[in-house]
């Protein structure tokens, strides 16, 4: 898979690379945040269609997420996101998205820096460039895709344009999966109050009850297979349901830093991820999952970051994605939140992500790049009367996490 990093100019124009040997392209476009089952269906259809036509499959990857870029612009007088912009609502960083896109068999990816100038380009102009400069023959989109200035390019408009010009065809993928769900129009993360994986509040409701719930929460319809739904699920502790949409456990990544050593004192040394953490951090609570070690964060990571941030200005390209090398993994009890038992005189504590590896090995993970995968919600955060009571609960959490991980591994 070849990757091109492209930055639009001040008018939103992009120097689109031409496909080699005069070949035509089968294109799709999106942020692909989370690379959930819906994204996979669209990308796999693009690959399939390209094989049928003897064409090249191309994914145009928008980064940062358009929603995040527009939100930033609204708060900063229309400015574009800075180079060091961190999007806490992104399900995964761009390098992880590229790694998963490559697994679908896509031939080429154009990573486009999403700017306000680029956002102002009409869908007609954009698609004209895709046909004239890139050689697009087929455009593959999901069932509710929109594009262009003010999102005017819906499926009806794009289909009419394809029929009127006759220079490309539109292939629409049914990427709704199990169908639609209802999400509150505005919501904030809500930590579960009871132990165990939370249930879907709509489960078992009849139509009248669902309507009542929707009115009370000002709910809107959304695809089950959508990034918005994944964020909502994670924001309510429903990591198992989120994994069903993603097709794999949700994960966050970071570099292990020194904490306050309290876990080690209690006999449960944890790997603390330093900020910023890459990926959407679920709501506060204690989870079962996996702690994955990719080794010391070093030159390879620095080079990967430089490629994503700096190569676009020169429209540089690279062949493929350097896959992360997993060294080892352990079942883990994962804590997200503040350390309630050890607050300081009522002062607010920092929110942290820390994981205790369920192993008898002596681990020294400081400075390592780590991934935390979430497999199940164990319990809400709580305050304990003593360090001994906390240690006893941590032992229970570790046993529960190891048992859940062992069960999933056996199922596989």
Characterization of the model:
The structure is a single chain. The protein has 12 helices and 17 strands. It has 412 residues and is an alpha/beta fold. It folds into 2 domains: 172 residues, HUPs (Rossmann fold); 230 residues, Elongation Factor Tu (Ef-tu), domain 3, CATH 2.40.30. Helix 8 runs antiparallel to helix 9. The protein is globular and about 75 Å long. It starts with a strand and ends with a helix. About 3% of the residues have low confidence. This is Bifunctional riboflavin kinase/FMN adenylyltransferase.
Quick tags:
412 residues, alpha/beta, Rossmann fold, Elongation Factor Tu (Ef-tu), domain 3, 2 domains, 7-stranded mixed beta sheet, 6-stranded antiparallel β-barrel, 12 helices, 17 strands, 32% helix
- Helix count equals 12
Roughly how much helix do the residues carry, as a percent range? 25-40%
- CATH homologous superfamily (4th level) name of the largest domain: Riboflavin kinase-like
**SS-derived structural category:** alpha/beta
With strands numbered from the N-terminus, the spatial order across the biggest sheet is 8-5-2-3-4-1-14
- Integer-rounded radius of gyration: 23 Å
Uncertain ranges: 303-314
Shape assignment? globular
Q: Report the count of strand segments.
A: 17
**Largest pleated sheet:** 7 strands, mixed
The arrangement of helices and strands along the chain is EEHEHHEHHEEEHEEHEHHEHEEHEEEEH
């Amino acid at each position: 898979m070849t990757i091109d990093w492209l930055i639009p100019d001040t008018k939103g124009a992009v120097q689109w690379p031409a496909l080699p040997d005069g070949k035509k392209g089968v294109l799709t476009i999106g942020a692909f945040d989370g690379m959930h089952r819906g994204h996979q269906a669209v990308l796999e259809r693009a690959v399939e269609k390209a094989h049928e036509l003897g064409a090249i499959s191309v994914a145009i990857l928008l980064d940062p997420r358009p929603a995040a870029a527009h939100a930033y612009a609204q708060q900063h007088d229309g400015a574009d996101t800075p180079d060091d912009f961190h999007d806490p609502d992104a399900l995964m960083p761009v390098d992880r998205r590229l790694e998963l896109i490559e697994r679908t068999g896509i031939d080429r990816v154009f990573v486009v820096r999403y700017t306000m100038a680029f956002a102002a380009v009409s869908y007609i102009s954009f698609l004209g460039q895709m046909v004239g400069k890139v050689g697009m023959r087929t455009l593959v989109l999901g069932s509710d895709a929109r594009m262009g200035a003010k999102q005017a390019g819906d499926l009806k408009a794009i289909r009419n344009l394809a029929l009127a010009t006759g220079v490309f065809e539109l292939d629409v993928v049914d990427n709704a999966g199990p169908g639609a769900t209802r999400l509150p129009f505005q919501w904030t993360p809500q930590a579960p109050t009871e132990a165990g994986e939370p249930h879907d509040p709509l489960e078992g409701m009849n139509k009248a009850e669902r309507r009542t719930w929707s009115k009370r929460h000002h709910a809107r319809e959304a695809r089950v297979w959508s990034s918005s739904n994944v964020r909502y699920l994670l924001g309510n502790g429903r990591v198992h349901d989120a994994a069903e949409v993603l097709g794999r456990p949700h994960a966050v990544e970071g570099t292990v830093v020194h904490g306050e050593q309290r876990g080690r004192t209690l006999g449960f040394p944890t790997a603390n991820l330093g900020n910023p953490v890459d990926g959407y951090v679920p709501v506060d609570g204690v989870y079962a999952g996996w702690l994955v070690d990719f080794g010391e964060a070093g030159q390879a990571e620095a080079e990967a970051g430089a490629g994503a941030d700096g190569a676009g200005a020169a429209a540089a390209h690279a062949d493929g994605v350097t896959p992360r090398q997993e060294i080892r993994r352990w079942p883990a009890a994962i804590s997200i939140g503040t350390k309630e038992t050890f607050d300081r005189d009522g002062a607010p504590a920092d929110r942290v992500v820390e994981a205790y590896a369920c192993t008898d090995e002596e681990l020294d993970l400081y400075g390592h790049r780590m991934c935390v995968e979430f497999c199940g919600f164990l319990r809400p955060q709580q305050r304990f009367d003593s360090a001994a009571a906390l240690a006893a609960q941590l032992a229970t959490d570790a046993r529960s996490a190891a048992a859940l991980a062992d069960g999933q591994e056996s199922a596989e």
